[in-house]
Design a protein that fits this description.
The complex is a heterodimer.
Chain A (H helix, E strand, L loop, with lengths): L19 H26 L5 H7 L3 H29 L3 H28 L1
Helix pairs in contact in A: 1-3, 3-4
Chain B lengths: L18 H6 L4 H18 L1 H13 L1 H10 L3 H28 L6 H26 L4
The chains are: A mainly alpha, B mainly alpha.
């Protein structure tokens, strides 16, 4: 294969993403989460916290959509982080693959649950 | 493609950290922020069903909201919440530091060290504040 000359901008392109997608996704989702936190945090500054004000915050459709996007961002963010942890510490391929699969299924489950929580209000 | 060999030759592993060393090895401050970022993230992931459950309780009905209040007055729950609040604050603030570093700001030895210090200077007092609030001192 390519020797030492095949690194950097001269690397052999094989169609892999070299982790750039995950890298970017982790950063972008983190920004989404900070924006959502600021949104919720600022809304809570007005008036004391009671069930009525809290539930009213999540009542409008746009807030449900924004919150679902934030929760999905959280789950994607968690997936990138967990994948890094499994890749760093778990070397046997069968164990890594199992843990990664369980993580993905678990996070998908959480996503479904999030939908139900948000749309019940 | 280089050559394929039928048998995989065992390679010697060179590791610069062994277990006993892990206990005494003194990480630089930025390294401590880094590993704590990972640990706090893992903790938050593990607590995800618990947190979603709390979120569910807070939104379902007035009754469940009150149930959440009662739950949050339990000492053990307060301790768990405090651990998660620390995890969240550390993860958030260290994360903001990483976003800034990604923009190639503060990459120098000195500035990265002081920003690592700033992470603790912000996250720990905020955690203390949360603890005082949780346990009723303020």
């Amino acid at each position: 294969m390519a020797g030492l000359s095949g690194i950097g901008s001269k690397r052999l392109v094989v169609g892999a993403h070299y982790g750039v997608t995950s890298f970017l996704a982790q950063r972008i989702t983190s920004v989404v989460l900070v924006i959502w936190l600021l949104l919720v945090g600022l809304s809570l500054l007005f008036g004391p916290l009671s069930y009525d004000t809290w539930a009213a915050l999540f009542a409008p459709l746009w807030m449900k959509v924004v919150s679902l996007i934030a929760l999905l961002s959280l789950l994607y963010h968690a997936w990138v982080g967990l994948r890094n942890i499994w890749m760093d510490y778990v070397t046997p391929m069968w164990a890594r693959l199992s843990l990664q699969s369980v993580t993905v299924l678990w996070l998908i489950g959480c996503a479904v649950w999030s939908v139900q929580i948000l749309w019940r209000v | 493609m280089s050559t394929f060999t039928a048998t995989k030759r065992p390679r010697r592993l060179y590791r610069n950290l062994q277990f006993p060393l892990l206990l005494t090895y003194r990480l630089p401050l930025a390294g401590l922020v880094s590993i704590m970022h990972r640990i706090s993230g893992a903790l938050l992931f593990l607590a995800l069903p618990f947190l979603l459950w709390l979120f569910d309780l807070s939104l379902t009905s007035e009754l469940s909201f009150e149930r959440l209040r009662g739950l949050a007055s339990n000492f053990l729950v307060k301790l768990i919440l405090l651990l998660l609040i620390w995890s969240f604050l550390h993860h958030l603030i260290a994360g903001v530091r990483y976003l800034v570093l990604d923009l190639h700001i503060g990459l120098g030895l000195k500035s990265s060290r002081s920003s690592a210090m700033a992470v603790y200077a912000i996250s720990l007092p905020l955690t203390l504040l949360a603890a005082l609030r949780l346990f009723g001192a303020i």
